[in-house]
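Good morning C.,

I know you're traveling, so I'll keep this short. The sequence:
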Amino acid sequence: MSSSDMRLEVTWQLVLKKLAKWNSTVSLTYIRRYYQTVTAVSLIALLLIMSMLNLLRGKGHLVSVSADSIAESSVNFSSLSAKFDLPPPKPDAGLPINTDETSQSNKVIYNRIDKSGTRTFLYIIKKLALRNRFNHISSDIWAAKYTSNDQQKDMITEVNTSPSPLLYDRPVHYIHFPRYGANQPSWISLVRDPLERFVSLFYYKRYGDVRTRPKTFKNASISMVKHTFDDCVLKNRAECSTKNVMQIIPYFCGQGAGCRIPNRWALETAKRNIIDNFVVVGVLEELNTTLFVLQNVLPRFFKGAEDAYISLLLSGVVRGYSSFAGEVPSEAAMSKMKERLTLEYELYYFIKERLELMKQQFIVYPLQNTILVNSHSREESLTDEVNEDTHVTSEDDGDRETTPDDKGSDTHGNENGDGEKFSIVDEDDSKVDNLNTDSVNASQDGDENEQAQTTDEE
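The tokens, ready to paste straight into the viewer:
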């Protein structure tokens, strides 16, 4: 065999070896991909089978419900439940509060809740704005609580562009500023016993109060006024039905559609927002405690709040807030309505317990320079303030005059069981502590008066 033939044979052998190696690699690649595909398909099939088994066992539910299949009277919203990945929040979560941070706050939003002492609280804020030298802006938008993204951005812009220190008040369902890239202000609010607030709002829409009745409620429709609270509740009219029980929760839950439907998710979300985003949520029936806590948490804004409140009571201004009451509700109607407000009461008790825990924090460790004032100078200051407060007018109080027949853009039209329209008036009253001479003197000595009797001043 010639040398050329030997070279050719060696070359072909090398070529054949290369081809054999390439074929082997290709085969292994295809085999690997094949098994990977089979494994993935098998896992998907197994998951589908397990899901079907869970449905058959009743662990999952596929329910088809028609609009006519649910009668309003048969819906028990208080029994609705939801599963949460996190345990339900407790009132002591996030406590004790870090006053080193809150005392430096320069932007505060007071989220006003109608018929929960707003006029009294705003009166105190106006006096403190002059004394403590902060900017107070009271929004003219009081009916648009559920807002669009653009409206939320407008409010954020107004707050961010206003000079600090700022206290801005407006009734609105909670807006999360960081969602739009803005710094989170310090949110505060004030709640009231849900049933008492509901009854108060019911009669205010029909009769008004001493300050508003002569001008704005004299033309209230007879058909609207004739319906008593008992009639509304026991006949399950729309105004008092289970569809209208989410009164307080949306202010803390937020702007989501689920926040306006009675369910536990909305309640738990409201609680978490109170813990994470509200520095103080006060209680109208415990207004002394609320002001005490605010003085310690936000001293830049609320230093001297107790003095301003006492001067307001002594001046008699709050007497003009008393609503004209209608027929006294029966026990049956009150009990029925309270049952419908179960979720609202759970939030209310959560807030009360949290407020008490905050009070205990500051009784043990009071923040310096907040409420420690010389009693003699304080007495003189109170005398001067009372003399000024006796000249307060409705304009000073920030009253808005809105009638049940008002067609303005700042009213919500709601329809009762008879198809009649009524306007939800967001002008608030409050329940305040009746301080007798002894309790005023005790307050002047720096003591807390928590046992003052409360009365309606709707």
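Safe travels,
E.
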